[in-house]
């Protein structure tokens, strides 16, 4: 990697995170110690205890943690989505309350947007917020919300009625975990992950006026300000996972000897691993482009690149994991080598936070100008 692509300070950060991650194994310890070193809040403003960097630096950190086998899913949610939205659009009081704690890892915030009946159609979100005097009342359901049990609050996407048009528009609310009427149910997942998934029910959850994040009339802009970092960070998560699997396979292919030569000497083994490496590197370049555009304030350009990066990384990750398991044969399915669990985990980057088909729709409509089919 040349300085043309990544400056020296980023290369130094990458090496430091990689060295740190190799010496840690327990996720809770990784989060705590990474926060102490400033890695968790590297993207948040210095004035509020962060590192003063951007999504470029945060995605780099997550990628290297994943490469070492220590991915932290909540980095996508707490500092990247919630921290970014609050830093850009929150009130001064919200920034003072949340950003230092999100930066040092002492508090976590989850993010709730997906609903049982809305799927990929965010216009069908039915969680509504209505005024009751100076307060807000939130009612609705969310599903597949990560880490609610360990989060101090959840940033909920609801909809309010536009007084001028009568149409519903998106708005963001900070809902404390102990708010009356705010309940959760754990979803039983086949996927093994430290971060659990939950269904949320909001039954007339009463919130003060200051729970609203940003401008009530700019909710869509604020929402996408969080979703672009989410896609970039999901790409970093996938690339790190793919690099981790590929490294295990390459080590095995160098050492495993059959018919007097290492199996990596055979092109049928070597070439698919080389292809996996190429595709991960290409995905990383698009991720870096997306992160740089976002940090430069180009939300439109970042939107296109972030979707492309997420798509490319998801595909590259699945291919790398599949080829890694195939390279190890039966050993690839054993607990000892730790690759089998990635078969399921790798598919997450294809499905969440947006499916690859919806990304293809986005590129078809937004980039190529083709008509919509829906």
Describe this structure in words.
- The mean pLDDT is 93.
- The longest helix has 37 residues.
- Helices cover 50% and strands 16% of the residues.
- The protein has a four-stranded mixed beta sheet, covered by helices on one side.
- It is globular, with a radius of gyration of 21 Å.
- The chain is an alpha+beta fold.
- Helix 1 packs parallel to helix 3 and helix 7 runs antiparallel to helix 8.
- The protein contains ten helices and ten strands.
- It starts with 7 loop residues before the first helix and ends in a 7-residue tail after the last helix.
What descriptors fit this protein?
374 residues; alpha+beta; four-stranded mixed beta sheet
Give a short summary of the structure.
The chain is an alpha+beta fold.
Overall mean pLDDT = 93
Query: Structural class given helices, strands, pairing?
Result: alpha+beta
Cα Rg: 21 Å
Query: Strands of the biggest beta sheet: in what spatial order?
Result: 1-4-5-8
- Order of helix and strand elements from N to C terminus: HHHHHEEEEEEEEHEEHHHH
Helix share bin: 40-55%
Shape: globular
Counting DSSP E segments of at least 2 residues, the number of strands comes to: 10
């Amino acid at each position: 990697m040349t300085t043309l692509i990544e400056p020296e300070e980023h290369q130094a950060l990458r090496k430091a995170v990689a060295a740190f991650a190799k010496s840690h194994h327990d996720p809770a310890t990784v989060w705590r110690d990474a926060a102490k070193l400033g890695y968790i809040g590297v993207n948040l403003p210095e004035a509020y205890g962060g590192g003063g960097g951007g999504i470029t630096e945060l995605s780099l950190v997550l990628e290297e943690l994943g490469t070492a086998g220590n991915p932290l899913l909540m980095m996508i949610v707490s500092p990247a989505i919630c921290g970014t939205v609050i830093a850009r659009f929150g009130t001064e009081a919200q920034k003072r309350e949340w950003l230092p704690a999100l930066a040092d890892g002492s508090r976590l915030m989850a993010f709730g947007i997906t609903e049982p009946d809305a799927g990929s159609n965010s216009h069908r979100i039915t969680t509504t917020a209505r005024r009751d005097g100076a307060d807000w009342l939130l009612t609705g359901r969310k599903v597949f919300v990560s880490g609610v049990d360990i989060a101090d609050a959840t940033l909920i996407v609801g909809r309010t009625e536009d007084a001028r048009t009568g149409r519903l528009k998106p708005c963001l609310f900070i809902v404390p975990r102990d708010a009356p009427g705010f309940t959760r149910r754990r979803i039983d997942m086949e996927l093994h992950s430290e971060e659990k998934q939950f269904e949320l029910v909001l039954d007339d959850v009463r919130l003060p006026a200051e729970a609203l994040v940003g401008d009530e009339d700019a909710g869509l802009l604020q929402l996408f300000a969080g979703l672009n970092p989410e896609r970039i960070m999901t790409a970093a998560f996938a690339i790190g996972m793919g690099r981790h699997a590929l490294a295990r396979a390459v080590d095995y292919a160098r050492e495993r000897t059959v018919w007097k030569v290492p199996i990596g000497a055979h092109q049928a083994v070597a070439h698919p691993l080389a292809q996996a490496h190429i595709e991960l590197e290409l995905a990383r370049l698009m991720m870096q482009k997306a992160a740089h555009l976002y940090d430069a304030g180009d939300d439109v350009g970042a939107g296109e690149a972030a979707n492309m990066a997420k798509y490319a990384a998801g595909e590259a990750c699945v291919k790398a994991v599949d080829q890694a398991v195939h390279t190890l044969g039966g050993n690839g399915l054993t607990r000892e080598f730790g690759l089998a669990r990635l078969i399921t985990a790798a598919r997450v980057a294809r499905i969440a936070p947006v499916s690859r088909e919806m990304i293809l729709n986005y590129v078809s409509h937004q980039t190529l100008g083709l008509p919509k089919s829906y």
